[in-house]
C-alpha cells in the first residue's frame, strides 16, 4: 500500500529538501546580489527568501493563496494573486524570481508571459526548477510506475509537472528572453536519510565536472530583450538640400581646352 503523498512545503522539511534549499539559497544570493533596479518580485516559496541578498529598495513576495502563520520564519507575503495575472503595470519590474513557481503552476506558459509583460526592457528573471533528467527524476518516474501497481512511495512531491532544462530555454526564447546563464546542482543520489546524503557528498564535486547536466536542480538567469526602433520620418518629407560652395579652378592663367579648340 502506498504512503500518503506530501506536498512541496512538507518535502522541504525532509533531509533531501533541506539539502536542496541550502544549494538554492547560495545560488539565489549569488545571482541576485548584482542585479540593480528599484522593484523586485518573488513568486511563491516563502520558505526561501530569494531576495535577501538583493539591494533594491522595493521587494515583494507574492503567493497564490494565503497560508496560516506557523512561526517557522521565512519571508512574509505582501500580496495574494494569480501568477498569470499580476497586479503590476507593463514594464514596471526590474527583477522577477521564480523558485519552483513554474512546475507548481497549472499553466506555466501563462506565468512566463505575465512575467515578460511586467518586466522592464533588460529586466531579468531568475528561475529554479527540479530536473527530470537526473537521478532524482529517474527515481520519481519509477515511483510513479510502482504507484500505478498499488505500492511504493514518491521520492519528490507530486505537486506539479517538472519541466526539462532545454524545454524551458525554448519557452524563454519564444518570449524574447535571452538566457544569460544556466547551471545545475545537487548531484547526490536520491537518498532519504541524512547520513546517506552526507556519505555521497563527494558527488557534488565530481558531478559538476563530469556530468553537469544531470544535477537534481537547475538554475536559469534570463534577460528580457526588446529590439530598438529607429524612426526614419515620412516619405513625403523633402530631403535637405546640399549647399554648394565655389570651387577654385587650377591653372587659371593657361588657356582651357575649349579655348584652344575655338582658336584653332
Descriptive report:
- With 264 residues, the protein is α/β, with parallel strands linked by helices.
- The model has no long low-confidence stretch (mean pLDDT 82).
- It has one domain: Rossmann fold, CATH 3.40.50.150.
- Strands 3-2-1-4-5-7-6 form a seven-stranded mixed sheet, sandwiched between helices.
- It contains eight helices and seven strands.
- The relative contact order is 0.14.
- The protein is 30% helix and 19% strand.
- The chain is globular.
- The longest helix is centred in the N-terminal third of the chain and has 18 residues, at 15-32.
How is the topology of this model organized?
Elements: H1 8-11, H2 15-32, E1 39-43, E2 58-63, E3 79-80, E4 93-99, H3 108-118, E5 119-130, H4 135-148, H5 165-174, E6 177-185, H6 194-199, H7 202-210, E7 217-224, H8 257-263
Parallel strand pairs: 1-2, 1-4, 2-3, 4-5
Antiparallel strand pairs: 5-7, 6-7
Amino acid at each position: 500500500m502506498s504512503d500518503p503523498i506530501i506536498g512541496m512545503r512538507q518535502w522541504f522539511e525532509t533531509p533531501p529538501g533541506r539539502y536542496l534549499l541550502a544549494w538554492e539559497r547560495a545560488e539565489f544570493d549569488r545571482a541576485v546580489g548584482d542585479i540593480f533596479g528599484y522593484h523586485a518580485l518573488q513568486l511563491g516559496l516563502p520558505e526561501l527568501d530569494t531576495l535577501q541578498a538583493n539591494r533594491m529598495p522595493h521587494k515583494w513576495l507574492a503567493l497564490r493563496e494565503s497560508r496560516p502563520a506557523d512561526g517557522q520564519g521565512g519571508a512574509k507575503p505582501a500580496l495574494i494573486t494569480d501568477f498569470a495575472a499580476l497586479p503590476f503595470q507593463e514594464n514596471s519590474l526590474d527583477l522577477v524570481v521564480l523558485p519552483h513557481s513554474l512546475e507548481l503552476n497549472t499553466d506555466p506558459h501563462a506565468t512566463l508571459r505575465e512575467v515578460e509583460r511586467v518586466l522592464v526592457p533588460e529586466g531579468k528573471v531568475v528561475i529554479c526548477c527540479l530536473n527530470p533528467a537526473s537521478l532524482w527524476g529517474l527515481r520519481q518516474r519509477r515511483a510513479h510506475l510502482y504507484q500505478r501497481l498499488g505500492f511504493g512511495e514518491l521520492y519528490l512531491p507530486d505537486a506539479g509537472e517538472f519541466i526539462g532544462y532545454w524545454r524551458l530555454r525554448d519557452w524563454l526564447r519564444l518570449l524574447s528572453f535571452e538566457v544569460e546563464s544556466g547551471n545545475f546542482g545537487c548531484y547526490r543520489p536520491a537518498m532519504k536519510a541524512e547520513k546517506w546524503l552526507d556519505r555521497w557528498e563527494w558527488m557534488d564535486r565530481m558531478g559538476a565536472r563530469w556530468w553537469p547536466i544531470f544535477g537534481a536542480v537547475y538554475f536559469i538567469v534570463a534577460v528580457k530583450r526588446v529590439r530598438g526602433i529607429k524612426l526614419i520620418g515620412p516619405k513625403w518629407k523633402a530631403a535637405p538640400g546640399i549647399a554648394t560652395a565655389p570651387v577654385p579652378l587650377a591653372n587659371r592663367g593657361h588657356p582651357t581646352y575649349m579655348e584652344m579648340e575655338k582658336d584653332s
